[in-house]
Amino acid sequence: MAPSVLSPTEALIKSDDFVDHLGAGAARGTEMQANSDIQSATNSIMKDEKKYSVVGMPTLPVVMARGSGAFLWDINGKKYIDFNAGFLSVNQGHCHPRIVVTMIEQWRLLTLPSRVIQSVLRVIR
Questions:
Q1: Which residue from 3, 18, 59, 107 has the highest number of Cβ atoms inside 10 Å of its Cβ?
Q2: Is residue 116 helix, strand or coil?
Q3: Please, is 17 exposed, middle or buried when counting C-beta atoms within 10 Å of its C-beta (0-12, 13-18, 19+)?
Q4: Beta-strand (E) ranges in 8-68?
Q5: How far apart are CA 40 and CA 73, in angstroms?
Q6: Three-class secondary structure of residue 49 per DSSP
Q7: Quick one: pLDDT band at residue 20, thresholds 50, 70, 90?
Q8: Closest Cα to residue 39, out of 58, 11, 61, 59?
Q9: 28: left (phi over 0), alpha (psi -120 to 50) or beta
Q10: Is 69 helix (H, G, I), strand (E, B) or coil?
Q11: 65-104 per-position pLDDT tens digit
């Protein structure tokens, strides 16, 4: 029999890390409430994203809160390896300190110019 494939949300909820996140000895009712709270927060964020953002590629039912290097953490503190290799993170990872400093310096001057105009940009060397 082939193994069943879990959605990212199901995998999160069924993982040992999730149970550990709840604390050892968490009662099933507490775990179910935590699952409900997590899903509610995720659904709320995804609803706002759909309402206020440009729709592009479909998203996974998980909300990421931060990243560092090759890792991401969702809004519940669960750690993931970023195999997505997104636009910028594939080369230098998430939140590389030198890149963050350079971006902040640039954003103080000009946040996001159109591609149809020239702008003065500082190159990281």
A1: 18
A2: coil
A3: exposed
A4: 64-68
A5: 18
A6: helix
A7: very low
A8: 61
A9: alpha
A10: strand
A11: 999 998 999 999 999 998 876 666 777 888 889 989 988 9
